[in-house]
Amino acid sequence: MKSFLLAFVLLALASSLASAFDPRPLQDFCVAIDEPKSAVFLNGKFCKDPKLAKAGDFYFSVKMPGDTNNPVAARIDFAPYGQNPPHTHPRATEILVLLEGTLLVGFVTSNPNHTLISKVLNKGDVFVFAIGLIHFQFNIGKANALAFAGLSSQNPGVITIADAVFGSNPPINPDFLAKAFQLNVKVVKDLQAKF
Amino acid sequence: MKSFLLAFVLLALASSLASAFDPRPLQDFCVAIDEPKSAVFLNGKFCKDPKLAKAGDFYFSVKMPGDTNNPVAARIDFAPYGQNPPHTHPRATEILVLLEGTLLVGFVTSNPNHTLISKVLNKGDVFVFAIGLIHFQFNIGKANALAFAGLSSQNPGVITIADAVFGSNPPINPDFLAKAFQLNVKVVKDLQAKF
Amino acid sequence: MKSFLLAFVLLALASSLASAFDPRPLQDFCVAIDEPKSAVFLNGKFCKDPKLAKAGDFYFSVKMPGDTNNPVAARIDFAPYGQNPPHTHPRATEILVLLEGTLLVGFVTSNPNHTLISKVLNKGDVFVFAIGLIHFQFNIGKANALAFAGLSSQNPGVITIADAVFGSNPPINPDFLAKAFQLNVKVVKDLQAKF
Amino acid sequence: MKSFLLAFVLLALASSLASAFDPRPLQDFCVAIDEPKSAVFLNGKFCKDPKLAKAGDFYFSVKMPGDTNNPVAARIDFAPYGQNPPHTHPRATEILVLLEGTLLVGFVTSNPNHTLISKVLNKGDVFVFAIGLIHFQFNIGKANALAFAGLSSQNPGVITIADAVFGSNPPINPDFLAKAFQLNVKVVKDLQAKF
Amino acid sequence: MKSFLLAFVLLALASSLASAFDPRPLQDFCVAIDEPKSAVFLNGKFCKDPKLAKAGDFYFSVKMPGDTNNPVAARIDFAPYGQNPPHTHPRATEILVLLEGTLLVGFVTSNPNHTLISKVLNKGDVFVFAIGLIHFQFNIGKANALAFAGLSSQNPGVITIADAVFGSNPPINPDFLAKAFQLNVKVVKDLQAKF
Amino acid sequence: MKSFLLAFVLLALASSLASAFDPRPLQDFCVAIDEPKSAVFLNGKFCKDPKLAKAGDFYFSVKMPGDTNNPVAARIDFAPYGQNPPHTHPRATEILVLLEGTLLVGFVTSNPNHTLISKVLNKGDVFVFAIGLIHFQFNIGKANALAFAGLSSQNPGVITIADAVFGSNPPINPDFLAKAFQLNVKVVKDLQAKF
Hints:
homohexamer, five-stranded antiparallel beta sheet
């Protein structure tokens, strides 16, 4: 379903885009490191010794090869007609800078209006998607598109709507979903088989 | 689509369930009032003169007649097989206390696992739905169900998934949605006509 | 002094009623676990591996047997004329849902007014006590009363006024207390012996 | 009851001791002003035009004559054996600098320990009282004492325990209080008449 | 002194890069508007009626003509060898995306180390400057450079070090500055005349 | 350069002056302790077992011998004409209580005004320096001066302007600095050699 290449590059700039959800900084910066003791889960990450910080810890390049581990900053490649399907970030606002190509982007406001606010972006354009709202990006050009996305939390979270609703594990009761989406139960079961 | 009666009762306890998104209290409490000058939108509400606060400002009853204006506390009535379809609250965690009946409730975790965490609730049971996650309630009994829901923000927001995706105004590009949901374009257009 | 049965049930829903005092969530949820290394005290708790979360971690029932370890959610049983004496929660707002019986509840505002805001609650009523204010509950009926209380912090704290003032360890200077409470020194010493 | 002179001096340094409860600053500083439209209550104060700020807005002197309007900074004068009776600040931590004299100060930790942590302070000593805990100051010397107190919120609030419990308006049910404080009902009614 | 063209473009995306210093959102978004009543200063801005929000409110383009009023997002043009001199943002972290040219960028950590962390950036590179630290950008190429800068607060503030120290109004005591900067008093007075 | 004696005294009152940058308290108080495992850096400190807290943990005296480890509270001694040169605290507001002597203190507001707000303080005077702004203290009397300074964060940070700009390691490009400060390159290189 995702025809775009999502290239998350590891940037240890954990608190660099300080978010309303992140712990407040108590140091000049916190370069996040992965805590080796995997049995223990903290609310947040451990920081590198600040004296060992290097310029590379604050740096990211859209020219770097892809790496899928970084939630804060991302290079997103879109093949022609590729899409980043409807999704939300429960803990972050997103800022998207389009470096190449043409994208149709948009988000839908909450109940009761469900207003779609969308725009066609070209090179050099910047767009902002507010925290928690359903949004998407769609390459409507014949060429590749390349964007930089920054997210305002150390752990923004992603909920891809179609996957979460029709692809949960275990599946949601299909009769319930059929009613909620006004679809035939058979169609819902087919979707649950695909996702 | 919503077979349940959603009875939001006006409770002027704006900051009573202080949330991470609400302004910090600077008074013993802030009993929200609607600011008459409708052309001006503040981030938050004005407060009643604290000296005029009454017990009724801190009180809510599931026996009260419905009122659709209060986002913080709600009585929810479910007809047999009625449902509260998949939705998220972008700015609040929800706590649900079941007073009568039997409900199947659940939520789906974020990418990449999409784990469905669900439970059948009976009278006296309490369940918590974390901020920003897709969740639902479904009356699986033959009798009515009655619940009290508290939300952790003065303005939690509600995004009903099916409405936001297929019922936005203007509609989202149906070719885009067909691909994202792996549905036939005709089915998407039918859904967009219904929602 | 406490004639009511205070049944705190362990609900590992640490961040479920996210409070202004709790660290911001960086995960979908944090199911608190007790860190085994007792010599180290963190500001907050460690979280369970989110992949191991179960529905029971988000669930609480007033039908469950009592458990005294959970500060976030509680079943409170009141014998006839039983009371929850004047106390404050320095780090949480409290929401009380009355499931059975009749309670007189109230709180006092801060200086200089000291207004008592109180109300008689019946089954299905909900009342809110703002953070840091002195409040109480009193069963004024001849039958038992049963309530569910939710608190807006992972560690709300409780300060029972009479215990803290007259039962501290070591005791506060009785001459000082006699003057502050306008009581005879002998009465103060008697109270300090009782608490 | 209060034999000390409490001299609160108006210091328009509203957000200068930024607290966890205060709105975040969006300017270099916010010199609070009183909003003339008394019918409207905001959560926080309006700020003076920053261009009009003067050094006096950031300045306070223990030599200044008393003024009872400022909640953030205070000069406190204690007559011999004068006291600041047990009280809490629901929205602020307090830092006290003793400039002259000798004070016995202390606070009591929350349930279940109720540990009294107290100390005799002399000139040049500084003591900190954590937010929400019951604390007091008592001049145990034969000379006057003079202290400077800073509070960590624009509106810290003060709850004088004896006044709030026995002097509320309307009064709390005396039977209830008698039981809670293990006092004779007649003693409670006498106290309620005095406070 | 500033050879670069600083083109701040009005982007009414006030809370889009939600910062630790900004008030928490209580709406899907707050499109800031300038409140006409200039005599009143709030901590934060008023929001546009959300129903009137348009895509342009979330959009910014580096191709747009310069506008000096927007503190949140900026296009920065650097002439060859142009510079953005040492400065701090007291209320924001900055993220810089280089769209054209070559820049030397850097920041200095706090006492006692004063480590300079710097890097030469090329097209497509991104760098982060942590809140409150002294940082700078310098065009070291022979061509123009073009960057997009995002700041994590609605009102980040800028303190240009040389201007603030030597160009304050009224001037700081030159003897004091001479000692602090180990410069001759005459040199300090010359600087104060220039800035 | 610093002719004053900076006597930071270890006061383990980590969160006592709760700041907007500090983690929210989840206990009555957090008496910070140094975590022995030096390879791991947390955002914040570990707390002492609250049951072991003693009065000394909340106490500080300007009579105590100097100790350079405590960032929250400080005794500052100024020799005649001694100075605390221009500096900022990126994570704290500072409150200064003058106990002896005469100081000229001041701070400069941010761009574009750079207003110097300064005042001569005498014994008993208190002054507040807002977070992130450049400020200084200068003993303009012939006698020693003695002050108590409290800072609103567990780790406020200090950036001494002259040291950070001219004494960074490695040094900032002198041509760049010469232009930014409108100084001769030779003068800049001399300064870089001194700092």
